[in-house]
Design a protein that fits this description.
The strands form five sheets. The chain has a six-stranded mixed sheet, sandwiched between helices. α2 runs parallel beside α4 and α3 packs across α4. The radius of gyration is 25 Å and the shape is globular. The chain has nine helices and 23 strands. The N and C termini lie far apart (about 55 Å). By secondary structure, the chain is an alpha+beta fold.
Length: about 375
Amino acid sequence: MSGARLKTLHKSFGHQEILKGIDLTIEPGSFTVLLGPSGCGKSTTLRILAGLETQTSGEVWIGHRDVSALEPRERDVAMVFQNYALYPNMTIARNMGFGLKARKTPAAEIRTRVTEAARMLGITELLGRYPRQLSGGQQQRVAIGRAIVRQPNLFLFDEPLSNLDAKLRVEMRTELLRLHRDLAATTIYVTHDQEEAMTMADRIVVMNAGQIEQIGRPDEIYFAPVSLMVAGFVGSPAMNLIDGRISTGAVETAIGRLEAKADAPAGCGIVLGIRPDDLFFPDSLEAVDQALVLDCHVEFIELLGARGIVTLRNGDTRLRGVFEERYLGRFAEGEQVRLALSRHRLHVFDRSSGRRLALAHAAPA
């Protein structure tokens, strides 16, 4: 089992700089997710790790080897793509064992590895079929099996579930996590789907415009975003973002005045962030914890089964809240409702730099 390290990695295509100095350490045995919007550089980073793209400058290390100048076959990695890239004229068994055959692995060992991987993935009965006879989910399992038989130092996944329907994506997420634990393999996984990232990762690397915005555990990324970009990108529905300004001993916003000190000078423009699940009814929140109480007009209610998304308006400011089913009966479209914000669950960002500001709340009277 090996880890990996990227040192000051740059990549340009012509005059367009795609990666702008990526420094990243992947711990052995970890499940690391590269998360970010389309065009942020996450797939390019993965392809450079695999040797499918060449960095403009910087170093790529796998384990204790500098592999920066090595061909893909010399790096001992296995990559699973968004399109499964199965050979249509080969049986599933031959597809899974093709890479081993190309390496001149003995036929008996190929059969053993393919059989074991098929057993782990529950596709033993498919080994004699052809790709055209398989569903999308079955083809994905074959592509993963082809990676497993290689027994590589690193497993690299580039948005492998994006072609599957919602139900199958959830099933395959569970399957991939089980395999990761069984194999204890170092896994690097690229996605723009934050739900995949939050449910699968030991550690998330949020990327934006060719740079790393934040690295942390899923709970750190969600509850303590270090920038406006992370705050706005991670979370569904997205974080409510409200413009404001620092005044003496307070934060002034369109929804009210917070008695708090932010780590910025008076007059500094800020953005107040409120997670949709951090809107509460006043009677469910201790008065000592309440930072603001808001009177809101209920515009829409979207039922999601055991939860619902409620779109609200406070003056000219629109907010979205997420509430459990037992609270949804308190809302009626077109009516008024009173809600509260917890002083311990607010996020404040410098409007110019986008960076998170420390917030110290005044003691309640």
